[in-house]
Design a protein that fits this description.
Number of strands: 26
Bound molecules: adenosine-5'-triphosphate
Largest sheet: 6 strands, mixed
Strand content: 15-25%
Strand order of the largest sheet: 4-5-3-1-6-7
Radius of gyration: 33 Å
């Protein structure tokens, strides 16, 4: 029996090998054609119309791209096949396949037999034979959709779906699904064979590396609906851990590019919560043939020239993420003009008379200028004009003319005279300096400056050490509504002391959203006075000499260069499509930042409220609604957990039930028979973690993730030193979106911040802290959601290590996770 089974399998593999050989032969033919064309092109240099030459070049280019992609030896260039009944009509699409989804009437005879009318092979790119019959259909083409969508309940024309596993040019195996088991179908007079035992399970069981793989050969029907959803408006996708949200989002990017390359090339932004998740997913799009077409960026790298490397304490993160910060920064952008040494008088000579504006008059002018709504840097010309007005007024010259024409002429002369004075220009530079986002952010490290911007009465003597007084011109006066508590001001100012006065220094992910806000509030620096078409002196030299090394001293100054780069880099804000992963964790300020990049975009937003680490998501929901605007929404839900075996999912569901009572968990599709292991620390925590990590390394071939409370990150790295690169230590918030073959969750109570009293009493934990509390969706439940994330990272094995705080029972089961 086994031998017979093997021979069916071998025969089917041989058949697919035969087809794959044909595909490669055809590709080689195309490559030869391209090479011939290239050779011919060089011989006949300029012969042919420009259009024909361009077309030929394009063909050569396309063949080259195919060749390159093939040479990279995709593990499974060709991965699928469907055998189809005749369609309801005989129309063919552009890929050469019949377009009909439903079978023709009578396709299945009354005796249950049928003939296969069409066999399609599905792969990473489409290949047509010389006579235009499709040898391989691109997985994103409409004709490939039934490969993913057909189910036994709604099989359409599909009788058999086959997943083909190959490496390079060799077919290794085939796995079949019969979608119409009741039909006896014949192909070329022979009954359709069925072999294999489930491609999906084989894919899910494989050991993980540190990079996510594409799921192109096993996309499931509910996922395919999301991937191929029309790009109109906003596509919102919710689903529990492991339901493929990240995978689906990336495949959707590849699909949209295939659908409308002209619209989307270079214009798709994928926003990921952490750089770890970016590097984990970075290979997926290239493996789908979309290299460099999509910008995959971490939230902390969305602003050009900024890269978040520092962490904020959670209570600081919460303030920095709050929408109140928009208002604080608005005020700060304006008061930043007062930071540092600001001249308090202006003296000029006009019409041979000295004219002077004193501190009070200058303050008055500044107030008038700031009465406008334009970004501060763009107000510089207005500041210049208002200063000239004030000087003119002060000089009394206007009163000498009754004839308005003469007065206007005199005023023009007056303005020219003053503007030509170096002193006036120097004054303007100091009085209305060009502000950069980094400098303004750094100015808020001065507690008094931040307090003023936040409307908090300033206390004496609480300025940034080593900085000129924080009292400023306005003394302790504050303007407007109170936006922060005093403790918040102290904590945020303190966190910004990582930055130097010039704003250089490590930024946190939350600082980056603030920089983006300031970028908009400050605006680009004003245009230089010379007309834009006029070249700069350096450009003139360059044009004359052809040497671009010639630079001005200012160009060579690294600080000036950096600041210019920061100011001049035009941030891309016109993405055609924005994909947001782990959307439940964006703060309001981050939504504002991401929203700016998709003002005219269509969106795909994926997330899971049950994994949110914020206690109160109401403000973030409002900011999300603002970012997405009035566009219509289309909602999808993913319901199957492909990551965790049922044994692990079952334990994680206990944390979910505490965190989000009543929320339905996703269904786990596989079971390994391996129950989670519980153990309690005896002796030293570090030694216990190291022992358990070693044990896990011995049990799995792939990766091991050790998840600890955020404050233990550094020590956990030390505990694991020397165990090799299969094992990594992660703070619970860093574990978002990642997965490991085995995970070790260290002290659930510490991660959840539930302390000794079980789920009800908060002792900090890794939720982004805030007001609220048990029963109000406060930090205790947010902490449990963070624990839920930690418990859902394993693909094979999970160990829970309890400390004292966890109150483990005799079996090592922590109080929090007991039945
Ligand atoms: N159709 C599929 N075929 C094979 N593997 C799949 C499929 N769908 C998802 N997976 C795998 O399941 C795992 C989880 O997918 P993914 O990380 O995209 O889930 P997620 O919903 O983003 O999870 P989380 O919310 O926990 O971040 C990944 O290893 C992914 O490759």
């Amino acid at each position: 029996m086994a031998a017979q089974h093997d021979s069916v399998r071998d025969r089917e593999i041989r058949e697919e090998q035969h087809h794959l050989d044909g595909v490669y032969r055809r590709l080689e033919e195309k490559i030869h054609e391209a090479e011939f064309l290239m050779d011919d092109a060089s011989k006949r240099a300029q012969v042919g119309t420009p259009g024909a030459l361009a077309e030929r070049d394009a063909q050569v280019f396309r063949a080259g791209v195919h060749l390159n992609r093939l040479n990279r030896e995709f593990e499974d260039f060709l991965f699928g096949r469907i055998d189809l009944l005749p369609g309801a009509d005989a129309e063919r699409g552009p890929d050469g396949a019949y377009t009909s989804v439903e079978p023709a009437e009578g396709a299945v005879r009354p005796d249950g037999t049928a003939d296969i009318a069409e066999t399609l092979h599905v792969g990473r790119m489409g290949v047509l034979d010389a006579d235009y019959t499709p040898l391989v259909i691109d997985w994103r083409a409409p004709a490939a959709a039934p490969f993913y969508r057909a189910t036994p309940v709604a099989p359409g024309r599909v009788v058999r779906r086959r997943v083909i596993r190959s490496k390079g040019r060799k077919v290794l195996g085939v796995e079949d699904d019969l979608l119409r088991p009741e039909v006896t179908a014949r192909l070329g007079g022979e009954e359709l064979a069925v072999t294999g035992d489930g491609a999906l399970m084989a894919a899910l069981g494989r050991a993980r590396g540190h990079a996510m793989r594409d799921i192109v050969s096993s996309i499931q029907a509910e996922q395919d609906l999301v991937i191929r959803a029309p790009a109109a408006s906003v596509t919102e996708v919710e689903g529990g851990p492991g339901t493929g949200k990240t995978a689906v989002a990336l495949h959707r990017a590849a699909y949209l590019l295939y659908q409308d390359r002209r619209r989307y090339a270079g214009g798709i932004l994928v926003v990921s919560p952490t750089p770890l998740l970016v590097s984990y997913t970075e290979g997926v799009l290239p493996s789908l043939g979309e290299e460099g077409q999509v910008a995959v960026r971490a939230l902390g790298s969305l602003v050009e020239g900024a890269e978040a490397t520092a962490y904020d304490e959670q209570h600081v993160a919460r303030v920095k993420g709050s929408p109140r910060m928009a208002k604080v920064l608005q005020r700060a952008a304006r008061t930043a003009l007062d930071a540092g040494e600001v001249p308090d008088s202006l003296r000029v000579v006009a019409f041979r008379n000295r004219v002077e504006l004193d501190a009070a008059e200058l303050r008055q002018v500044r107030r008038q200028v700031l009465g406008g709504t334009a970004p501060v840097n763009l107000m510089r010309p207005r500041a210049r004009r208002f200063l000239l007005d004030a000087l003119w007024e002060k000089s009394g010259a206007g009163r000498r003319y009754t004839d308005p024409e003469l007065a206007a002429e005199a005023r023009e002369g007056f303005d020219d005279d003053i503007s030509a004075e170096d002193e006036f220009t120097a004054f303007l530079d100091a009085w209305w300096p060009e502000l950069t986002p980094r400098r303004v952010l750094a100015s808020l490290a001065d507690e008094a400056a931040l307090a003023r911007a936040a409307g908090v009465p300033v206390r004496q003597g609480r300025t940034r050490p080593g900085r000129p007084g924080g009292q400023g011109r306005d003394g302790a006066r504050t303007r407007g509504r109170r936006l922060m508590e005093r403790g918040e001001v102290t904590a945020v100012a303190e966190s910004l002391r990582r930055l130097g006065d010039d704003g250089e220094g490590p930024l946190s992910v939350h600082d980056v959203a603030l920089l983006d806000e300031l970028r908009v509030l400050l605006g680009p620096p004003p245009r230089p006075t010379r007309r834009e078409s006029e070249p700069s002196p350096a450009e003139v030299l360059e044009q004359l000499t052809g040497l671009d090394e010639l630079t001005t001293a200012a160009d060579r100054d690294p600080t000036a260069r950096r600041e210019r780069a920061e100011r001049h880099t035009e941030e891309r804000t016109d993405y055609a499509h924005v994909i947001v992963d782990e959307a439940q964790d964006l703060t309001p300020m981050q939504w504002r930042m991401v929203g700016r990049r998709g003002r005219h975009a269509t969106w795909t937003v994926v997330g899971d409220p049950a994994q949110s680490s914020w206690p109160d998501t109401r403000e973030a929901d409002e900011a999300r609604a603002d970012a997405l605007g009035a566009r219509s929404r289309r909602r999808f839900e993913l319901t199957v957990n492909y990551r965790n075996p049922a044994e692990i999912a079952e334990l994680a569901d206990r944390a979910l039930a505490l965190a989000m009572p009543g929320m339905a968990p996703p269904k786990a599709v596989r079971s390994t028979g391996l129950r989670p292991r519980f153990t309690a620390v005896e002796g030293e925590l570090g030694a216990a973690v190291r022992d358990e990590a070693q044990r896990a390394l011995a049990e799995v071939d792939g990766t091991v993730g050790v998840v600890v409370a955020m404050h233990r990150r550094e020590e956990a790295r030390r505990w694991l030193a020397g165990l090799g690169d299969r094992v990594v230590a992660l703070g619970s918030l860093e574990a978002k979106g990642l997965e490991y073959d085995a995970t070790l969750v260290v002290s659930p109570a510490e991660i959840a911040g539930t302390g000794r009293g079980g789920a009800g009493s908060s002792t900090g934990g890794d939720a982004e802290e805030g007001p609220g509390g048990p029963g109000t969706g406060g930090p205790a439940t947010a902490g449990l959601r963070v624990l839920y994330v930690a418990l859902t990272r394993a693909t094979q094995r999970l160990t829970v290590l309890s400390g004292e705080l966890d109150l483990p029972d005799a079996d090592g089961v922590p109080e929090l996770l007991r039945d």
